[in-house]
Specification:
Elements: E1 14-16, E2 28-30, E3 34-36, E4 39-42, E5 48-51, E6 53-55, E7 65-67, E8 74-78, E9 86-90, E10 95-102, E11 109-116, E12 122-127, E13 132-136, E14 140-144, E15 150-154, E16 160-164, E17 172-175, E18 183-185, E19 193-196, E20 206-209, E21 217-218, E22 229-232, E23 240-244, E24 248-252, E25 263-264, E26 270-273, E27 280-281, E28 292-295, E29 303-305, E30 313-317, E31 320-328, E32 331-335, E33 343-344, E34 346-352, E35 360-363, E36 366-373, E37 377-383, E38 390-394, E39 399-406, E40 414-420, E41 423-430, E42 438-440, E43 448-451, E44 459-461, E45 468-470, E46 478-479, E47 488-493, E48 501-506, E49 515-516, E50 529-530, E51 536-540, E52 543-547, E53 553-555, E54 570-576, E55 583-589, E56 592-598, E57 604-605, E58 607-608, E59 611-618, E60 623-628, E61 644-647, E62 657-661, E63 664-668, E64 677-685, E65 688-689, E66 697-698, E67 708-716, E68 721-725, E69 729-730, E70 743-744, E71 752-755, E72 762-765, E73 768-769, E74 777-779, E75 788-794, E76 800-802, E77 806-807
Parallel strand pairs: 26-28
Antiparallel strand pairs: 1-38, 2-61, 3-34, 4-5, 5-8, 6-7, 8-9, 10-11, 11-12, 12-13, 14-15, 15-16, 16-17, 18-19, 19-20, 20-21, 22-23, 23-24, 24-25, 26-27, 28-29, 30-31, 31-32, 32-33, 35-36, 36-37, 37-38, 39-40, 40-41, 41-42, 43-44, 44-45, 45-46, 47-48, 48-49, 50-51, 51-52, 52-53, 54-55, 55-56, ...
Length: 813
């Protein structure tokens, strides 16, 4: 679970109204921005395959990406040019899956690299229709020809060229020439490969194989010699493109037998030639490339393609050259109009990007997070519906985020400190929950330190000599009179205080003494937050409690009911003031555990599964951003598990289970009384409630034989309760018929009906229970005429059973 916030004023804001989680009723909902495709591969019929991946660096081909962590390793397919996607193959969790290439039209075969995170990878052929994968003896995949034969190199020495036909049980191995690692495969031909031999043999001509690598022959060399940039780009078979240079462009339509006169490409641009995704060449010496030059007429004309973001990988639909993919680390966009407009290829179905708890903050329904790094570029992601949908604002190239500050009174107003390298240089402000951001002037000294409760535009900054404040959201700044900025708050013994303690605002600058809080303390200290009732809550290290209206402090950091953080070993995490009681969060340092309480109620342990939770930020009085706690360090498990929204009104405990014991069956819960109390137990058989069976144990009953039992337990805390059912437990034995009472007597008005049951009797007129009739006999009334009468009873084991009905003579009233 995970991360911190950011923003930027440049680049395009991308709105992603995609549902991240369907089960909003869950107590613990993992949240994060939708994952983006990081690798795509086109089949010759325009079918596109993608995996949630990203480029580790700026490679010269699409065959070197790695997947993002914490995403579902699945192969996705789109048959409508990238408008809709469906998962066709799922790799085991914990593996990295990256699509490399797709076979010919209609084959339904894709090729991907698969392997454990940080471990060796294998090349697998995936049958999309069957959802199965076959491991190929390849260390490197060179490409796929029109017949569906895969070509690659075997790992190890000596170098071996391997070709794997799609219908063959085994692959063929051929001696590999020294230039084989620089070979490319023509997807429009069968057995046609080309290689730039000059990459390993100086001044060597281009080598071509027409028999699938069994033999190689020297072919013509372009006028300016080969420089390692060759590609089969189509649309016709055997069309080979070559870039010499640094900026001379040539094309061969006959598999390198002859070459066109070199044409000078536009300077400082990448070149996209033909319609195949691999025909992208770097003209400039440095990746990434933006913009690029596109030619579909052998270089007679070029069209400049301005890319929305820098990115080294450009995928082109072989059936529609106007359909483009631009993939970057953690970000993917596509265009259907030749690059004039772009749309984000992010979807929660692909998975969600994990958020670092140290780079996230939220208030109410609004969550902000900074995601990315210096290699991929950072973005500010924001959600105004607790993580259901997200909006992205990329920062400027080279910028990073240093801190986020959100107004508790108006969480749609937030501020982010940004800068290059390690130096903060400016601020971004949003007034609409992260949909748009504006650059604002920062203070002359120091970083943003606080947003004043009650006024989202009143900001404070702590400088080395004096603090500054802004009353207009950062547009203008002035020196704070009297150095009112509190960098640390302490509670010290004071006999004049009713609690024996008094809060002091301690400034960190030499020569400045402590300032005692007055009757209405100015709430600008870190952790000191405004309360709707005029009181304040303090969170400052070992301190956790309420600041009263007279400036006194009431501590709440001590166990209640035998559970909770210790007064000596507890550490404050957060607080949220509310009229029905301030919600306090604390962590026990030894042993590590997290706790929450409301007002003067008892402490409850915060856990999900087997892990204690760390409070990242309280959202409101009943919701909190949380992440798993590292039991050894006491901090979140950075980068290892998603950030989540925890709903305190629904105790986050696991369902109960039924186990056999000597005395019968027992309904056991996998939580302790510190996490939740048991407020009720209900037993069911075949879905029907066993009345009166409300204890944890169930004595053996012959009526249970051959039937499935469940137990539901209501878990309750101060914040709310939730009923959790167990998995069905099937009792061994042969099922017997349930005993039913029977009704005797004349079914006529004025007559007396008798029920064979003697206890727990209830009479029914049709499906309606007759009020206050629980005797073994029943006198038929005029209103019963024409109706079916029956009696019901409850057996000793809680079984409810009803007699067959008898119809009373006469017409219904």
């Amino acid at each position: 679970m995970r991360r911190l916030l950011l923003a930027s004023c440049a680049a395009l804001l991308l709105a992603l109204p995609v549902s991240i989680h369907a089960a909003q009723a869950a107590a613990y909902v993992e949240v994060g921005p939708p994952a983006a495709l990081g690798a795509v591969a086109f089949a010759t019929d325009g079918t596109v395959y993608g995996t949630v991946a990203a480029l580790a660096s700026a490679p010269h081909s699409q065959f070197q990406p790695y997947t993002l962590p914490d995403t579902d390793p699945a192969l996705w397919q789109s048959t409508d040019h990238g408008h809709t996607w469906n998962a066709r193959y799922h790799a085991p969790q914990g593996t990295r899956l990256v699509v490399l290439a797709a076979s010919a039209a209609g084959s339904g075969l894709a090729y991907a690299s698969v392997g454990p995170e940080g471990g060796p990878v294998t090349i697998e052929r995936i049958d999309v229709g069957r959802g199965t994968a076959t491991t190929l003896p390849l260390g490197t995949l060179l490409g796929i020809d029109r017949a569906g034969t895969a070509y690659g190199l075997r790992t190890g020495a000596p170098a071996t060229l391997v070709r794997c036909r799609p219908d063959a049980a085994a692959c063929d191995e051929l001696p590999a020439p020294p230039f084989a690692a620089h070979a490319v495969v023509d997807p429009g031909s069968t057995g046609l490969l080309a290689a730039d031999a000059s990459a390993t043999l100086p001044d060597a001509p281009i080598q071509v194989s027409t028999d699938g690598g069994a033999s190689w022959a020297a072919r013509a060399t372009p006028a300016y010699g080969c420089t390692c940039h060759i590609a089969f780009g189509g649309p016709a078979p055997a069309t080979l493109y070559e870039l010499t240079g640094p900026q001379w462009f040539s094309v061969s339509h006959d598999g390198a037998l002859t070459w066109s006169t070199p044409i000078r490409a536009p300077e400082n641009l990448g070149v996209v030639a033909g319609s195949h995704p691999s025909a992208l060449f770097p003209v400039a010496s440095d990746y990434p490339l933006s913009p690029v030059a596109v030619t579909n007429d052998d270089g007679a004309t070029f069209r400049t393609l301005d890319l929305p973001t820098d990115g080294p990988l450009l995928g082109i639909d072989p059936l529609d050259p106007a359909h483009l993919f631009l993939l970057q680390l953690g970000r993917a966009t596509q265009s259907w109009d030749g690059g004039h407009t772009w749309a984000n290829v992010s979807d929660a179905r692909f998975g969600t990007v994990a958020i670092d708890p140290a780079r996230a903050y939220g208030v109410g329904a609004v969550i902000y997070a900074a995601i990315g790094d210096s290699r991929s570029g950072e973005s500010i992601w924001a959600s105004d519906d607790r993580g259901a949908t997200w909006h992205e604002q990329p920062l400027l190239p080279g910028e990073r985020a240093f801190g986020i500050f959100v107004s508790r009174d108006d969480p749609r107003t937030a501020y982010v400190t940004v800068g290059a390298s390690s130096l903060p240089s400016g601020f971004r402000r949003t007034r609409d929950g992260g949909r748009t951001w504006q650059a604002v002037q920062g203070p002359q000294a120091g970083e943003l330190a606080h947003v004043l409760p009650g006024d989202p535009l009143h900001l404070y900054s702590g400088g080395q000599v004096s603090g500054q404040e802004s009353f207009d959201g950062g547009d203008t700044w002035s020196v704070v009179p009297g150095n009112r900025i509190c960098a640390e708050v302490r509670a010290e013994a004071d006999s004049t205080s009713p609690t024996g303690l008094r809060l002091h605002c301690v400034l960190p600058y030499p020569g400045v003494g402590p300032t005692v809080f007055g009757p209405r303390p100015f709430p600008i200290a870190p952790g000191l937050v405004g309360s709707p009732d005029g009181f304040f809550s303090l969170v400052a290290g070992d301190l956790l409690g309420d600041v009263q209206a007279d400036g006194t402090w009431r501590s709440v950091l001590a166990p209640t009911g035998g559970v909770g953080p210790g007064a000596e070993t507890g550490l404050a995490q957060a607080a949220w003031p509310a009229r029905d009681g301030t919600v306090f969060y604390a962590i026990e340092r030894d042993p590590r555990s997290s706790w929450v309480r409301r007002g003067s109620g008892r402490w409850w342990r915060l856990r999900h599964g087997a892990a204690d939770l760390v409070v990242v930020a309280p959202l409101d009085a009943t919701h909190v951003l949380a992440a798993p706690l590292n039991a050894r360090s006491g901090y979140p498990l950075f980068g290892k598990a998603p950030l989540a929204v925890l709903d305190l009104t629904r105790p986050d405990v696991s369902p109960p289970a039924i186990a056999a014991v000597d005395a019968g069956l027992e309904c056991t819960v996998p939580w302790t009384s510190a996490e939740a109390q048991i407020a009720g137990i209900v037993w069911r058989r075949g879905g029907a409630i066993l009345q009166g069976a409300t204890g944890p144990r169930r004595a053996p009953s012959r009526l249970d034989r051959g039937r499935a039992l469940t137990c539901s337990v209501t878990a309750a805390t101060t914040f709310g309760s939730m009923s959790l059912p167990s998995a069905p437990y099937r009792v061994a034995g042969t099922r017997i018929a349930l005993p039913r009472p029977h009704v005797s007597g004349s079914p006529s008005v004025g007559a007396r009906l008798r029920c064979s049951a003697r206890t727990h009797v209830t009479w029914y007129r049709g499906v309606v229970r007759v009020a206050r009739e629980h005797a073994g006999t029943y006198v038929v009334r005029m209103g019963d005429a024409g109706h079916a009468m029956a009696c019901q009873t409850r057996l000793a084991d809680g079984t409810v059973t009803r007699s067959r009905a008898v119809r009373v003579a006469g017409a219904p009233a």
